[in-house]
Amino acid sequence: MIVQTRGLTKIYNGVNVVNGINLSIEPQGVYGFLGPNGSGKTTVMRMLLGLIRADGGDIEIFQKSMPKERNKILKRVGALIEKPAHYEHLNGLDNLKISAKLYGVENSKQLDWAINIVGLRKGIHKKVSTYSLGMKQRLGIANALLHKPSLLLLDEPTNGLDPEGIHEMRELIRELPKQEGMTILVSSHLLGEIEQIADQIGVIYNGNILFQGAKSTLLSNQETNSFIISSAQIQSIESVFKRKENQININHDSRKGLILSGKDLTEEKIELLLIKEGIHDYYIKSTSRSLEDAYIELIHSSGENS
User: How far apart are CA 118 and CA 123, in angstroms?
Assistant: First the structure.
């Protein structure tokens, strides 16, 4: 594992804002750290970097102990946590040159690579004080990438970006593990973003980890099956299920058709019931569960929302 925590805990004012969590992050992939604002994501990332001390538990990064071996660890880590900090009176390039000296990066090609990969070439000679929030975010990520770290921590990296910038950032996060062999821990409260970029997912809520593992496992681990039925006889089909099956949830989608969902519902069961009723003109499609569905189910089943 690149990152391993055991019983990681942080207490503020007598409240466990991070409650004994065990993270396991595998190498060369994207770990999506998902949870609402205030769930503990940023606090965990700050502890991983040694910016704040844990009140309990252990942290290992590259099989080294944090904070005991912090300097050795941080040489191989890049991070953008919360709001990026820059010298506003300098231009973007000068900001990166200062960081490059601190990192010991002397190769100018590496500087150019970081600028180009975040799409900041056009604005690199402008003063940072004139930058939009999105440009400052790009500069912060370029700074984190300068020394080509093995582990990259990004806290809400699409903050302030326009739709085109969000798309570009998403592509960058997906490609860095493939092209550079990086491991990326990216936090977000946006389910759609995590669903599109992550291989592994950790769901945190009120300081507790509700799920950790492969995204495919989370999306396939569903308690209900759902199907969409399209038909010219949709009203007749709906009346059949209202009359015959009270264990099935029935919803409408104006674009797709009738949506049926239930714990023991199968395509064969639907077809058998419709054939018995003399209905043959229909099309059935199984629907896959979205990350939003899985997330809401986790919250409800944990009792954390009560």
Answer: 11
Helices (H) and strands (E) in the chain, counts: 11, 15
What whole-number distance in Å separates Cα of residue 61 and Cα of residue 212?
18
State pTM to two decimals.
Answer: 0.79
* CB contact at 8 A, 190 and 183: no
- pLDDT of the chain along its 306 residues, tens only? 999 999 999 999 999 999 999 999 999 999 999 999 899 999 999 999 999 999 999 999 999 999 999 999 999 999 999 888 899 999 999 999 999 999 999 888 999 999 999 989 999 999 999 999 889 999 999 999 999 999 999 999 988 788 888 888 899 999 999 999 999 999 998 888 898 899 999 999 999 999 999 988 887 765 667 788 888 888 888 888 888 666 777 877 666 678 887 777 888 888 888 888 888 888 888 776 678 878 887 887 776 543
- Lookup: tokens for 241: 């299920």
Nearest of 292, 280, 227, 277 to residue 257 by alpha carbon: 227
